[in-house]
Amino acid sequence: VKKPGKALSKGHKNYDLMLNLQLGIRYTVGKHASILRELRPGDFDPKEKYWTRFPPEGSKSTPPHQSVDFRWKDYCPMVFRHLRELFAIDTADYMVAICGNDTLREMSSPGKSGSLFYLTQDDRFIIKTVKKSEVKVLIRMLPSYYQHVLQYKNSLVTKFFGVHCVKPVGGQKTRFIVMGNLFHSEYRIHKRFDLKGSSHGRITDKPEKEIDEITTLKDLDLNFVFRLEQSWFQELIWQINRDCQFLEAEGIMDYSLLIGLHFRDDYAVDDAPLDLCAAKTSLHHDEIIMQDMKWIPIGRGPLIRLGANMPARAERVSKVGLDLQTGSGCSNSTPSESSGEIFDVILYFGIIDILQYYDISKKLEHAYKSFHVDPTSISSVDPKLYSKRFRDFIHRIFVEDK
Ligand code: ATP
Ligand code: CA
Ligand code: CA
Predict the structure, then answer these.
(1) Residue 282 falls inside a structural domain
(2) d(CA 130, CA 355)
(3) Which residues form the PIPK domain (predicted)?
(4) Number of domains forming the structure of the chain
(5) 11 CA to centre of ligand 2 in angstroms
(6) CA–CA separation, 331 vs 329, rounded Å?
(7) 142 belongs to a structural domain
(8) Does any ligand 1 atom lie closer than 6 A to the CB of residue 216?
(9) φ/ψ (deg, to 5) at 216
(10) What's the pLDDT tens digit per position in 275-306?
(11) Is any ligand 1 atom within 6 A of the Cβ of residue 194?
(12) For the complex shown, is ipTM > 0.95?
């Protein structure tokens, strides 16, 4: 199995950063491991006092280390301690995954933002470097985020486990968040999609023959729909509505529904019958913009079917929520009228990249791009519109299996 990313070993330009991060997290998690008291409003306040100095020779509270002299900041450690508890993350597992001897893997910058992504060796956690503004957004929304995930156990929004900052003496600050890897699974992910519901630029820029399992495909690369058993469909739509309501109220836009697919049949990626590049070859750029997703073959019947005869559904839903792990029961089902093939798949998904506030720069981006293309097709739109378009899109790619 091809694992995404490259191990960060000695000599890598971000090796020290990784060491600092590991030292910092070990310190933070260790420090708060024994105390689990009720949260107080003050815990949501990102205090300055959470800076800790890590001199190489060690100090009263920090161990000696081989890396550069640095300072470390924890944001709202008590809140994240509670969040990890809520998300059933075992403290020892968490520490071993991030700070164990195995090095982290750096994913080849999957996004356009310039953020770095690190994956723990066990694949469970992703560490992403973020901008100052993103930390601000997260800290500002933390009380309502906490309420939201507490209230909705099946929420699809990113699970955050920690926010930190590293500052080498005389160097730049690097801020990062630790979150759950949506694709941590015993099943191999064959295809992955990052979907926003907008069309402008939403197509992979990779040449067709370079597209593989770890390529993140986008809206315009998707040419099939997901058929969900009725109750699952309803639960999904209900939960997405709750999550979008939350994001909208927080003034957030630019998030995506990230979907990973595991094909249950003996499915070879190379001879995949899905012609994922059809849209790219048959439509010109302008047409894509004009049509704004209308090419999705809604009337043609689904190619992918989910959730039929799923055993122990209730248990799974409540346990892993809508990371819908489903499938089975499709092998003897007849493909619907005009559809090609129906695949039996296991689906993993969640809403990611939820720290972009619709601020002045996003407003300008919208205004600027609006001169050139249909304003409704671009990613930067106000949070209300964004959420509506996102939900409409989800309604089109998921269909109810009646
Ligand atoms: P941009 O702002 O340009 O969209 P970004 O740098 O903010 O990009 P994200 O959108 O957060 O990056 O993530 C980029 C890609 O990284 C996603 O499309 C996905 O492939 C992968 N990724 C991000 N978060 C997760 C996650 N929690 N689990 C699994 N994969 C993820
Ligand atoms: Ca993104
Ligand atoms: Ca982003």
Answers:
(1) yes
(2) 9
(3) 9-398
(4) 2
(5) 29
(6) 6
(7) yes
(8) yes
(9) -90, 115
(10) 222 222 222 222 222 222 222 232 232 333 33
(11) yes
(12) yes
